Amino acid sequence: MQMPAADQAIISRKSEIVALLSAALSDGVVVHDPVETRAYECDALAAYRCPPLCVVLPRSTDEVAAIMRICHEQGVPVVPRGAGTSLAGGALPTEDCVVLGVSRMVAVLEVDYPNRFIRVEAGRTNLSVTGAVEDDGFFYAPDPSSQIACAIAGNIAMNSGGAHCLKYGVTTNNLMGVTMVMADGEIVEIGGAHLDAGGLDLLGLICGSEGQLGIVTEATLRILAKPEGARPVLVGFDSSEAAGACVSEIIKAGIIPVAIEFMDRLCIRASEAHAHSGYPDCEAMLIIEVEGSEGEITEQLSRIIAIAQKHNPVEVRESQSQEESARIWLGRKSAFGAMGRINDYMCLDGTIPVSELSFVLRRIAELSAEAGLQVGNVFHAGDGNMHPLILFDANKAGDLEKTEALGAEILKLCVEVGGCLTGEHGVGVEKRELMFNQYSPADLEAQMQLKDVFDPAWGLNPAKVFPLSASKSRRTG
Ligand SMILES: Cc1cc2nc3c(=O)[nH]c(=O)nc-3n(C[C@H](O)[C@H](O)[C@H](O)COP(=O)(O)OP(=O)(O)OC[C@H]3O[C@@H](n4cnc5c(N)ncnc54)[C@H](O)[C@@H]3O)c2cc1C
Questions:
Q1: With contact defined as beta carbons under 8 Å apart, do 411 and 350 qualify?
Q2: Helical packing angle, 294-309 and 240-252, nearest 10°
Q3: What's the pLDDT tens digit per position in 401-413?
Q4: Ligand 1 nearest atom to the CA of residue 180, by list position
Q5: How far is the CA of 228 from the centre of ligand 1 (A)?
Q6: Alpha carbons 244 and 197: distance in angstroms, whole number
Q7: Would you list the DSSP string of 280-337?
Q8: Residue nearest to atom 23 of ligand 1 (CA)
Q9: Distance, CA 123 to ligand 1 centroid (Å)?
Q10: Letter string b/e over residues 257-275, b meaning 16 or more CB atoms within 10 A of that residue's CB
Q11: What are the φ/ψ torsions at residue 451 (nearest 5 degrees)?
Q12: What does pLDDT average to over the chain?
């Protein structure tokens, strides 16, 4: 993975830039000791790292605006950061950049149950948004597996999803408004606390823009009343293809479970060794959850189980209690971490039409065998959002390059079957050069013209999302 050369003129002005920022901000906001900035050298795509010029951890939107004004005047690039859990290298710094982290901005600003929204500062973690309203019977639906750590800011930037997004949609479907600081420090409000806001739908543009257009400091989020009940059924199969075919048939039947999650043998075993959820030892497994009243749950599960029976399952286990349901989900939510116990891994994120699941899983197995690298699959099968995990050894010469090449082949396959390069993790640096496989030069030019409008100097999160060759004249211009 290539990054452009850093601007040495900026690096040589480090103390001047740190002094300007420190003078404008409250104590402790600017972090510039290389020992302390080390924690910000990478995000969860830890294969790539780079020390930043310095890090700023503001406490308010006004402080973010002050930082942006200074960086704009000084021509210093800014890399926005939430919790740093991006798997696409979205928060990877450059040597000449200021990392702007919103992790101190965690307040709940307003809760409005009659109008079903919550307004929070953008550094608040995903899970603690639900935590703020659950005692009153509400929840925030998008639930990335990283929800205990990841921030709403990062969720908005990546348009994050999660296991339960099959029914409720991803971040963009649950985001109502943002406060955003523009590249020159201007503070703007986009969207609001109502179903629709006047003017153009700029909110749709901001959600998923990967820190390219501005710094999100506050968010108004849709909250929902908790369902009466929910119940998962766990179904084991003797092949990935059978599990994939079962998913297609459930969706084709018009049933919308709240989640359909897939795990293959490698992931089942890794997760079981870690979380002891009582998973069957089989080739592939689905966790299918439905919710509603007791009658709705029983009716939906009986239809789902009837479909599953047609695919010769090796085990069908309907949860019998809340404790069992929690145990089933614990295994799934721990799967990524559990795979990390086996080896280093690169987690891909591509989306495909659900009807192509069986074919794509078979092709991934073939590509994995050809490359000599093990690939585990754990993903949101109901909406076709795949997460092949390629295991490799970061200390073995050449392994990372082989992994990158296999990852590229798998993502190209997703595009070839009618899907796209990312479902929820974003493009970042990981898929930047693959954008040519999905978009024509004219498409990319149109997307870059949008960035021109918000960030004319291209100082926000440089060298991400757009292929380096396509963005070069703008970045160096
Ligand atoms: C174990 C694990 C499991 C995961 N599971 C899921 C999953 O199920 N679903 C899913 O969608 N993702 C998942 N992820 C990926 C990751 O958690 C999400 O992309 C998450 O939204 C990133 O949030 P963050 O706060 O950590 O953002 P960061 O990693 O800090 O940043 C992500 C992007 O957001 C930008 N950004 C951050 N803050 C701002 C801001 N204030 N304004 C503008 N841009 C900003 C950054 O520049 C970067 O481009 C997982 C990650 C891990 C490590």
A1: yes
A2: 130
A3: 999 999 999 999 9
A4: 42
A5: 30
A6: 40
A7: --SSEEEEEEEEESHHHHHHHHHHHHHHHHTT--SEEEE--SHHHHHHHHHHHHTHHH
A8: 154
A9: 11
A10: bbbbbbbbebbbbbbbebb
A11: -60, -40
A12: 95
Q: How far is the CA of 448 from the centre of ligand 1 (A)?
A: 22
pLDDT value at position 182?
Answer: 98
- Would you call 464 helix, strand, or coil by DSSP? coil
CA angle 297, 380, 84 (to 5 degrees): 125
Enumerate residues lining ligand 1, CB below 6 A: 43-44, 79-87, 90-91, 102, 122, 144-146, 150-151, 153-155, 157-158, 160-162, 210-211, 215-216, 336-337, 424-425, 461
CA distance 338 to 268: 10
252 by DSSP, 3-state: which?
helix
The HSE-up count of residue 157 (CA atoms within 13 Å, CB side) is 37
Q: How far is the CA of 184 from the centre of ligand 1 (A)?
A: 24
Prediction pTM value: 0.94
Q: What share of the chain is helix, strand, coil (3-state, %, to 5)?
A: 40, 20, 40
Q: Going from the N-terminus, what domains does the chain have, and what CATH number goes with each?
A: 1-226 (3.30.465.10), 229-336 (3.30.70.3450), 343-416 (3.30.70.2740)
472 CA from centroid of ligand 1 (Å): 25
- Of all protein residues, the one whose alpha carbon is nearest to atom 44 of ligand 1 is 211
Name the residue with tokens 């021109």.
Answer: 452
Q: How do residues 303-330 score in pLDDT, each as one tens digit?
A: 999 999 999 999 999 999 999 999 999 9
Pocket probe for ligand 1: among 59, 267, 425, 432, the residue whose CB has the most ligand atoms within 8 Å is 425
The radius of gyration computed from the CA coordinates of the chain, to the nearest angstrom, equals 22
Nearest atom in ligand 1 to the alpha carbon of residue 211 is 44
Closest residue CA from atom 21 of ligand 1: 155
Helices 399-416 and 357-371 cross at an angle (nearest 10°) of 160
DSSP string covering 355-375? GGHHHHHHHHHHHHHHHT--E
pLDDT grade, residue 355 (50/70/90)? Answer: confident
Question: Which atom of ligand 1 has the smallest separation from the CA of 44?
Answer: 53
- Over residues 284-291, mean pLDDT: 96
Q: How confident is the model at residue 1 (pLDDT cuts 50, 70, 90)?
A: confident
Location of structure tokens 């108004």: 220
